[in-house]
Amino acid sequence: MTSTIFIGNLPFDTLEEEIVEILSEAGNVVWFRTVFDKMTGRSKGYGFCEYNNHDQALIAANTLNNRIYKARAIRISLSDRHLQG
């Protein structure tokens, strides 16, 4: 069963490919999505990532939280939110 994490404090110019590369250190990333403001089209500075299983999500939350990306400490925590494709 897949498991989702929340990624916050992302720079507004985040490149999804770079974040996925970082998140892949914890396991196989099923998908990653940055959340955008519907009115402006600008990143809201957070997103969600789904892993193959809960263990990989736990590894991400425990080892990648506070990782520095573009001079910002990204925040990672387990999420109960599941986005529809």
TrEMBL record:
Q: Which domain of life is it from?
A: Eukaryota
**Gene Ontology terms, MF aspect:** mRNA binding
Cross-referenced Gene3D superfamilies, in alphabetical order? 3.30.70.330
Instruction: List keywords of the entry alphabetically.
Output: RNA-binding
The question of whether Transcription regulation is a record keyword is answered with no
Question: Record keywords: RNA-binding included?
Answer: yes
Of the GO CC terms on this record, one is:
mRNA cleavage and polyadenylation specificity factor complex
- The RRM domain sits at 3-81
SMART domains, per database record: RRM (SM00360)
Stated name of the protein:
RRM domain-containing protein
Organism per entry: Heterostelium pallidum (strain ATCC 26659 / Pp 5 / PN500)
